[in-house]
Every structure is written in structure tokens, then in C-alpha cells.
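>> received
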Amino acid sequence: MEILVVGALALLLFGPEQLPQIARQIGKVLGDLRKGSSMIRREWYNAVYPPAEELRREVNQYSSEMSSLSKDAFSLQPPTSEALTQSPVAPETSIAPRTSNPSAPKDAQKKTDE
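>> returned
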């Protein structure tokens, strides 16, 4: 219904002679707008999409690396009670007795040595 009202108003305002010319001009303007918008869309795509894809690939790579590391970490077995009680360093067989106290003052050491 609205289209009929707009068409009737255009016919009354511009007349039957100018209406086809105005319709052609409107069509050209709309075509130019479509071309311009497709050019802008293409430029936007070329500027944004390739770097975003590379970033997405890097994130996926790091994510898979982190996932494999976390799987490796969770697959480790906890130490047994036997392993916890064993000393990681072998005990020394001969320990020389200490003759002086290193934390004592030097004067006190001289007195004990005499």
C-alpha cells in the first residue's frame, strides 16, 4: 500500500515525462553504492581475514602444545612411599669430626685450642 502512495506522489510531483529519468538515476546511484560497498567489503576482508587466520593458527598451535603438556603432567605417577623414604644422595661413609665451632668467636676458639 505504501509503495502505491509513494508512486502516486512521485507521479504527481515529477510528471510522467521525468519519472523514467529519475528512476534511471536512482538505479545508477544504487548500483554505484553496491559497487562501493563490495569494494569496501573486499578491502576489509583482505586487511582483516589473513592476519586473523594466522593468529587463529598460532593460538590453536599453542593450545595443542599446552594440552599435550597438561596431559603429560597429569599422566605422571605420584611417587611411592618407598621412593619418598629413600635419600636421593648416598650417605658419606667417613665424616671427619669437627674440632672447632665455626660460629664461636675467634678468641673463644684460641682459648679452647690452648
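>> The two ends are 123 Å apart (CA to CA).
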